């Protein structure tokens, strides 16, 4: 059984890693440690609170929120299975968000900053992005 398959079959991430490490060691494979980053994945309510702090204008926040709700349901880890778009704002590719921070995969604040910058640069504002989204079903 592959290490990846073992990891998928176990619900607990800690147990999955331990089991994967044991399986890797048993088969002569080596697992390398990833850089140390704090786990910063935010709940939807935490992500919304962060966005409100970063977007104090209610109209702009509401437009941003509508896009994020449609795109990811405020799930920092959301991944579109067909396109690979990732995160709150469904960046494509998700690695684009690295421009806002190395913690782009798990940090709601980093994803929100990137998404806000994207909306401002491409559409003039979150309201402009929401207007485009309403007309096209994407932004």
From TrEMBL:
Q: Which SUPFAM superfamilies does this UniProt record tie to the protein?
A: Lysozyme-like
Lineage top rank: taxon:
Bacteria
- Record key words, sorted: Signal
Q: Where is the Transglycosylase SLT domain?
A: 59-131
Where in this chain does the entry annotate a coiled-coil region? none
Which Pfam families does its entry note? SLT
What's the name of the protein? Transglycosylase SLT domain-containing protein
Q: Where is the signal peptide?
A: 1-38
Q: Which InterPro entries match?
A: Lysozyme-like_dom_sf (IPR023346), Transglycosylase_SLT_dom_1 (IPR008258)
């Amino acid at each position: 059984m592959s290490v990846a398959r073992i990891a998928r079959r176990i619900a607990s991430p800690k147990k999955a890693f331990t089991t994967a490490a044991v399986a890797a060691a048993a088969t002569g494979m080596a697992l390398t440690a990833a850089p140390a980053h704090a786990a910063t994945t935010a709940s939807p309510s935490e992500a919304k609170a962060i966005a409100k702090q970063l977007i104090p204008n209610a109209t702009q926040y509401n437009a941003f929120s509508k896009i994020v709700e449609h795109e990811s349901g405020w799930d920092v880890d959301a991944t579109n299975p067909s396109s690979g778009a990732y995160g709150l704002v469904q960046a494509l590719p998700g690695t684009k968000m690295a421009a806002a921070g190395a913690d782009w995969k798990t940090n709601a604040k980093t994803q929100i900053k990137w998404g806000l910058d994207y909306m401002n640069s491409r559409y003039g504002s979150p309201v402009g992005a929401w207007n485009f989204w309403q007309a096209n079903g994407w932004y």
